[in-house]
Amino acid sequence: MNQENLAHCPLCQASELLDVLVATDYTTTQETFQVQKCASCQFVFTNPRPPVNAIGKYYQSDSYISHTDGGKGILDRVYLMARNFTLRWKEELISERHIKGELLDVGCGTGEFIYHMKTAGWNVTGVEPTETAREKASQKIQQKIYTDLQSINQTFDVITMWHVLEHVHELHETVEKIKSVLKENGTIIIAVPNHESPDAKEYQSHWAAYDVPRHLWHFSKTTMQNLMNTHGMKIKEVIPMKLDAYYVSLLSEKYRNPQQSSLMNMMKATLQGLTSNRKALKEINHSSLIYIIKK
Question: Is the peptide bond before 10 cis (omega within 30 degrees of 0)?
Answer without folding.
Answer: no
